[in-house]
């Protein structure tokens, strides 16, 4: 568990934003970004971010569709190559989908990093502060319930 925690601090996807903007090394950029998240209080929100899961599942879904279509075609045309064609088409479909929606994941990551750098900027709406307030309220409610105060 300690190794996983160290990997989150030293190597995370949000560090790529600092690599691109400030020309830092990846490990230093990841550490700096994670320290900013801790300082601003975004760690709980970052832990609940489902962007990566959505991108992964979209890739698997598109890969499965590609595999199904090519497998059917291959069974009709060349039965002896159906397995290989299905596997290759799944991999190609998965990676093409991941490449296509990587910009969405990068935009969300850049938004979190930009907010962490300057939370008082007028360019941001109230989405992140409202969500953080909701998370804090639900956490306080769970503490009260655990202590039988409600």
Automatic annotation (TrEMBL):
Topology versus the membrane: Multi-pass membrane protein
Signal peptide start-end: none
InterPro entries documented for this protein: Choline_transptr-like
UniProt keyword annotation of S-adenosyl-L-methionine present: no
Record key words, sorted: Membrane, Transmembrane, Transmembrane helix
Function summary: Choline transporter.
Family per similarity comment: Belongs to the CTL (choline transporter-like) family.
Name of the protein described by the UniProt record: Choline transporter-like protein
């Amino acid at each position: 568990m300690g190794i996983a925690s160290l990997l989150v601090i030293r190597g995370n996807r949000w560090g790529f934003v600092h690599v691109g903007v400030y020309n830092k090394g990846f490990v230093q950029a990841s550490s700096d970004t994670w320290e900013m998240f801790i300082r601003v209080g975004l760690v709980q929100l970052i832990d609940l971010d489902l962007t990566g899961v959505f991108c992964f599942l979209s890739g698997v879904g598109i890969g499965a569709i590609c595999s199904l279509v090519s497998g059917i075609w291959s069974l009709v045309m060349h039965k002896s190559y159906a397995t290989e064609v299905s596997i290759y088409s799944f991999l190609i479909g998965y990676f093409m989908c991941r490449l296509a929606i990587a910009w969405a994941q990068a935009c969300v990551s850049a938004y979190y990093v930009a907010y962490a750098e300057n939370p008082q900027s007028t360019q941001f709406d109230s989405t992140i502060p409202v969500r953080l307030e909701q998370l804090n309220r639900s956490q306080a409610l769970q503490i009260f319930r655990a202590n039988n105060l409600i």
